[in-house]
């Protein structure tokens, strides 16, 4: 089955700096890569996703890049703000409409210091 | 606005007890999932269902069973709770659609087994 490794496990950045979280996956057939953000005491929520036919996707201050050859993908957060403090999870799957079985990484706790 | 509701936020049970975790979604989603969340391990899939009365094992089904008698409700059952099942349990739902893979999570049920 799929295995997703996520690094680093914790990340502390100064407000305004950039944050980068990296994930690697094992199954070359995986074609769907979402990122979820979980604020303290809250439910995980999707912040951005990318499919394997695209190399990069941006949404305001967040971007995701995918390298299919190397089987890794990354989340980039620019101009970090205190509200970006949360745990971030990457995931991978072979996309199916009927029961998309995501495998998650271990999570990265991001702390943005004012 | 999608709502996924888990019946119990906090539960304390004894070893050997039978435990029921209930999840209800109100958006007519075909897919429903049960994950457990443990620090450093991310979210691990226990079971999922893509239709009423249909179920498939996830990555860690041992010690768990599920029931989906109605489309909106997906129950997780621990037949005989053990201390290693102490965890946060997250239910999620998603539509059976090709244009989105977003999971909508409930707020979680924190189970402690003594």
Q: Which regions of chain B contain 5 or more consecutive residues with pLDDT less than 50?
A: none
Give the largest interface: A-B, 28 and 30 residues
- Order of SSEs of chain A: EEEEEEEEEEE
The percent range for helix content of chain B is under 10%
Helix content of chain A: under 10%
Average pLDDT rating of chain A: 95
Number of strands of chain A: 11
Let me know the number of strands of chain B: 11
N-C termini distance of chain B: 37 Å
Count of discrete alpha- or pi-helical segments spanning 4 or more residues of chain B: 0
Basic shape of chain B? globular
Overall pLDDT of chain B: 94
Distance between the termini of chain A: 41 Å
State Rg of chain A: 14 Å
- Major beta sheet summary of chain A: 6 strands, mixed
C-alpha-based Rg of chain B, rounded = 13 Å
Low-confidence stretches of chain A: none
Short description:
With 114 residues, chain A is mostly beta strands. Chain A contains no helices and eleven strands.
What does the model show?
The complex is a heterodimer of chains A (114) and B (114). By secondary structure, chain A is mainly beta. Helices cover 0% and strands 54% of the residues of chain A. Chain A is built from no helices and eleven strands. Chain A has strands at 4-7, 10-14, 19-25, 32-38, 45-51, 56-59, 62-67, 72-77, 86-92, 103-104, 108-113. In chain A, the strands form two sheets. In chain A, strands 2, 4, 5, 9, 10 and 11 form a six-stranded mixed β-sheet that branches. Chain A has a five-stranded antiparallel β-sheet with strand order 1-3-8-7-6, with no helix packed on it. The radius of gyration of chain A is 14 Å and the shape is globular. With 114 residues, chain B is mostly beta strands. Helices cover 0% and strands 52% of the residues of chain B. Chain B has no helices and eleven strands. In chain B, strands 2, 4, 5, 6, 9, 10 and 11 form a seven-stranded mixed β-sheet that branches. A four-stranded antiparallel β-sheet of chain B has the order 1-3-8-7, with no helix packed on it. The radius of gyration of chain B is 13 Å and the shape is globular. The mean pLDDT of chain B is 94.
């Amino acid at each position: 089955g799929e295995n997703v490794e996520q690094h680093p496990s914790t990340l502390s950045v100064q407000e305004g700096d950039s944050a980068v979280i990296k994930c690697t996956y094992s199954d070359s057939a995986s074609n769907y890569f979402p990122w979820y953000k979980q604020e303290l005491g809250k439910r995980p929520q999707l912040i951005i996703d990318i499919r394997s036919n695209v190399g990069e996707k941006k949404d305001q201050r967040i971007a995701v890049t995918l390298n299919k050859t190397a089987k890794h993908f990354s989340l980039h957060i620019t101009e970090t703000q205190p509200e970006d403090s949360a745990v971030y999870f990457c995931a991978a799957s072979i996309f199916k409409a009927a029961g998309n079985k995501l495998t998650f990484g271990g999570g990265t706790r991001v702390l943005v210091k004012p | 606005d999608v709502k996924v509701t888990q019946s119990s936020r906090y539960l304390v049970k004894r070893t050997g007890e039978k435990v029921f975790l209930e999840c209800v979604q109100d958006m007519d989603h075909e897919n429903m999932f049960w994950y457990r969340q443990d620090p450093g391990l991310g979210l691990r899939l226990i079971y999922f269902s893509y239709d009423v009365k249909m179920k498939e094992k996830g990555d860690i089904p041992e010690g768990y069973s599920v029931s989906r008698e109605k489309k909106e409700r997906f129950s997780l059952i621990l037949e005989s709770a053990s201390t290693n099942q102490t965890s946060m349990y997250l239910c999620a739902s998603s539509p059976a659609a090709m244009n989105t893979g977003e999971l909508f999570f409930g707020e979680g049920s924190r189970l402690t087994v003594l």
